[in-house]
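Can anyone check this?
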Amino acid sequence: QVQLVESGGGLVQPGGSLTLSCAASGFTSTINVIGWFRQAPGKEREGVSCIQRIDGRTSYADSVKGRFTISRDNVKNMVYLQMNTLKPEDTAVYYCALRSGWDLHLEGNAYDYWGQGTQVTVSS
């Protein structure tokens, strides 16, 4: 059974940095994509970034390009989201999700498995 566990959320001041981690286990195929999504109170879920775990291709939402970096460690089955220059509007619950295949997607309905989420709050 696929399990995704996020960690690394917390409270950070505007302009600060935070790194989120996603530990993945239980998948039968190594050909998959892991994405990061976020949802703020009263707002729709937004795709933030995703990475193809075999070839390392990535995709980013325009709102985070140049500030966030996604990476993976296939030995540890981990995916990371380095978030720099954080803004109050980045405040949300952040989720990682997994989908099988090669294609990169930032639409949540393309993903089959989800973690429980980790809270990120950007505030002074």
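Reply from J.R.: I decoded it. The radius of gyration is 13 Å.
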